[in-house]
Amino acid sequence: MTEKTGTFVVTHAEDDSAVVRDVDTAQIHTLSSNPGLEVRDVLEATVAPDPPLEVTWQVIEVASRRQVEVVDSDLEPTVASKDAAADAEVGDLVRTERAGTGEIHVLSVPSEEVDDAAADVLEDLETVARAARLDVVRVEVRRSCGDGVLSVRYLPD
Q1: 88: Cβ contacts below 8 Å, ≥ 6 apart
Q2: The pLDDT of residue 7
């Protein structure tokens, strides 16, 4: 195996090891050491397999490291988001690009399940991985239980 450069999210971290996942390929890399990483860190980095067995990996270079802020907003989805959800079937996901960087994901959800769906999005590491793929640093989750709308905004700041 050879070195690999990419964007990784830290899925597990202990004092002496860590696990990172490539956000583009979902490949998992168990690190033989932990260079100060924390769960949910996003790295632009190069990793390489440890010789001789190449079972574990090590971080060779870190170009950048950041945390993605995932926020449970008390704001309601925008009118545009509510309109998008109104045209969608329950369970459908509507994606719209933001002007500039990021995306807005709108889900039509049964009213009684909106809070649970929001909690799932807030806790899911895939939310952080998606933010890393979109090169954003903030995710804002908005909801309207009465309308059955969940809005996930991937924002550059």
Answers
A1: 94, 106, 107, 108
A2: 97
Taking residues 132-143, report their average pLDDT. 95
Classify 145 as helix, strand or coil.
coil
Tell me whether residue 57 is exposed, middle or buried, using C-beta atoms within 10 angstroms of its C-beta: 0 to 12, 13 to 18, 19 or more: buried
d(CA 92, CA 62): 37
Amino acid at 54: E
Please name which of 143, 154, 148, 121 lies closest in space to residue 76, comparing C-alpha atoms: 143
Question: Mean pLDDT, to the nearest integer, of 22-28?
Answer: 96
Whole-number pLDDT of residue 75: 95
Q: What is the pLDDT of residue 98?
A: 85
Can you tell me whether residue 153 is helix, strand or coil?
strand
CA angle 70, 129, 27 (to 5 degrees): 155
